[in-house]
């Protein structure tokens, strides 16, 4: 075979090799794609269909009558959707703010590799790994009328505090518990970023006379900045989709005080059996999550490019 023939066949072999690699990757990803279509894409399509249809327990297995935007209008006119959106935004702000600030503070306090720090980190991971139903049940007991906190109030001569039974405090109480549950995860991420800073940087700061709070401001905060946006988006998504704690601790009450969009959709669909109305509420929540997912993807891509 001449050199000219060899040179001409090389691009052909390279093209065939790329095609083979592409087919291999496609076959490798095919099972995951099938599972994704079956468990995510298809239910989402059904959710969209149901949100624009009149679907109740009586018509669930029949042809769904198309009603357009009527479900969205009904939810808005009843006032449920507006209240749920406001509750959700308040809930997300509290959980995100306290979760991030508490996580960073815990990471700063536990940035050493001492045994005490390791024990505390283990406890934090235990708190984070607890199933939300278990975690919420524990906190419902602690915040109850005869729970630990009110028992301590009684011992010091104070009256019981209605953490979960007053319209002014129920949403904030559940949001604080959610923030408590996400702090360990945020602390682990922040701590990993802080531990990535070379020890020479801290030694140089100490030689320059930097105080501890100055180290936090000028060394640690810049170190965690690249991952902060990603962590903000993850915490917002966590707070936005919160359902378990509300279900266990307040069940949306008192009244509708702790009804967020995910929980309102559950009540409408699986308690009142108005699946069309519940689907419309759930679709609003899905749109919020899609926006957050786009922001998350862009932030991750930006961090990788940097």
What does this structure look like?
With 306 residues, this protein is mostly helical. Helices cover 76% and strands 1% of the residues. It contains twelve helices and two strands, in the order αββααααααααααα. The protein has helices at residues 3-51, 70-78, 80-109, 115-129, 132-143, 148-155, 170-195, 199-207, 212-240, 244-249, 261-270, 275-305, and strands at 53-54, 65-66. Strands 1-2 form a two-stranded antiparallel ribbon. It is flat, with a radius of gyration of 26 Å. The mean pLDDT is 87.
Task: Write a compact overview of the structure shown.
The chain is mostly helical. Helices cover 76% and strands 1% of the residues. It is flat.
Q: What is the CA–CA distance across the termini? A: 48 Å
Discrete helix count:
12
The SSE string, one letter per element, is HEEHHHHHHHHHHH
Please tell me what the overall shape is: flat
Q: What gyration radius follows from the Cα positions, in whole Å?
A: 26 Å
- Mean pLDDT equals 87
Helix content: over 70%
Alpha-beta classification: mainly alpha
Spatial sequence of strands, sheet with the most strands: 1-2
Descriptors for this entry?
two-stranded antiparallel ribbon; 306 residues; flat; 76% helix; mainly alpha; 2 strands
Topology:
Blueprint: H1 3-51, E1 53-54, E2 65-66, H2 70-78, H3 80-109, H4 115-129, H5 132-143, H6 148-155, H7 170-195, H8 199-207, H9 212-240, H10 244-249, H11 261-270, H12 275-305
Antiparallel strand pairs: 1-2
């Amino acid at each position: 075979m001449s050199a000219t023939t060899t040179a001409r066949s090389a691009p052909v072999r390279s093209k065939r090799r790329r095609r083979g690699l592409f087919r291999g990757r496609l076959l490798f990803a095919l099972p995951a794609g099938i599972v994704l279509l079956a468990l995510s894409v298809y239910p989402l399509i059904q959710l969209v269909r149901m949100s624009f249809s009149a679907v109740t327990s009586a018509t669930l297995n029949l042809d769904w009558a198309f009603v357009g935007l009527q479900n969205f209008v009904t939810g808005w006119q009843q006032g449920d959707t507006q209240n749920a959106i406001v509750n959700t935004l308040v809930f997300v702000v509290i959980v995100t703010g306290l979760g991030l600030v508490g996580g960073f503070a815990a990471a700063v306090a536990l940035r050493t590799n001492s045994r005490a720090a390791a024990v505390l980190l283990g406890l934090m991971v235990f708190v984070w790994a607890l199933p939300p139903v278990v975690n919420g049940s524990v906190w419902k007991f602690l915040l109850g009328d005869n729970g630990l906190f009110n028992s301590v109030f009684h011992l010091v001569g104070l009256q019981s505090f209605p953490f979960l039974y007053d319209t002014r405090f129920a949403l904030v109480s559940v949001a604080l518990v959610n923030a408590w549950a996400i702090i360990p995860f945020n602390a682990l991420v922040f701590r990993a970023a802080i531990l990535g800073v070379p020890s020479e940087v801290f030694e140089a700061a100490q030689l320059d006379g930097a105080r501890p709070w100055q180290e936090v401001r000028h060394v640690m905060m810049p170190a965690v900045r690249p991952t902060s946006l990603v962590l903000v988006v993850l915490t917002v998504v966590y707070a936005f989709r919160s359902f378990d704690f509300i279900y266990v601790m307040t069940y949306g009450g008192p009244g509708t005080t702790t009804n967020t969009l995910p929980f309102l959709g559950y009540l409408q669909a699986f308690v009142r059996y108005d699946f069309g109305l519940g689907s419309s509420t759930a679709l609003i929540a899905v749109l919020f999550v899609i926006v957050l997912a786009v922001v998350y993807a862009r932030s991750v891509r930006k961090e990788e490019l940097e």
